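Hi C.,

You asked whether I'd gotten around to modeling the 282-residue construct. I have! Everything is below, sequence then structure, no commentary in between.
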Amino acid sequence: MIESFNLAIAIPDSALSDEMTKRDKTIKVSQFARACSIFRVNQIYIYHDDTSPPRSNDYHLLKTLLCYLDTPQYLRKQLFPHMKELEFAGILHPLKSPHHKQRQDAKDIKIGDIRVGVIVDIKGSLYVNAGLEPLVKFIGPGVVGQKVNIKFTSIYPILQATEADEKDIKGIYWGYKVNAVPSLLTLLKRINNSEIVITSRKGSCLSSIEPKFVERMKSTQRLLVIFGSPQRGIPEMLTRTGYDKDKYGFMINMFPFQGTATVRLEEAMLGTLAIVNHIVNR
């Protein structure tokens, strides 16, 4: 079932290096976020591209905007105060994922409803800002300033909630998490119990390995799809580290006979995830 499938992607911190202005970089990150949300990506790993010069500004822009876009709009001002990375965030389209609830009348809240909120301290007691007019009394341990998924245990006028667990959200796409890793090699060594797909123009055409890939997908619930940088592909990156690029079962060219000299990362992401979505749903 697609609902229980865990899909992760990995992109380099040089992912924005082919854009010259902050505005264009911001739009590209939005395209990444939209593709990931459309196809229910659960994890986005940002790995350091050690074949490129350090681009700390690009990395912070990439991570900040991905987290910002995944945050419900009613929490953005609280979690993201005035930041230079958000200069052009106002032009971006919202994701409208299931966890991006609209502001609603507190009287409409039902027991068992799930919302995203931020824990706040009011005179020594914990409450949650969940995008409702009143704050919600939080039952249980919590950390002030932490983003948390809550499940309502009582209704208006005495709104109370506890932290929701995974089974409360099971079957609902609840956005992606963003994690940074020191290098692609580090990520590959950390990943366990997951099939890995390396996207590369030098890989096998999907049509030639599709039966094998489909069969492997039947026996796993986790997939990591790795994308290269605008300048270098994954085989080159791994070769420079001395790591065997053939260790993994699937290095796939998702765009055989492409009609352009290059496939931009945002295009590769959207196209690849669409293909993966089709295969997983089989």
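If it helps when you're writing up: The first helix runs from residue 22 to 38.

Thanks,
B.
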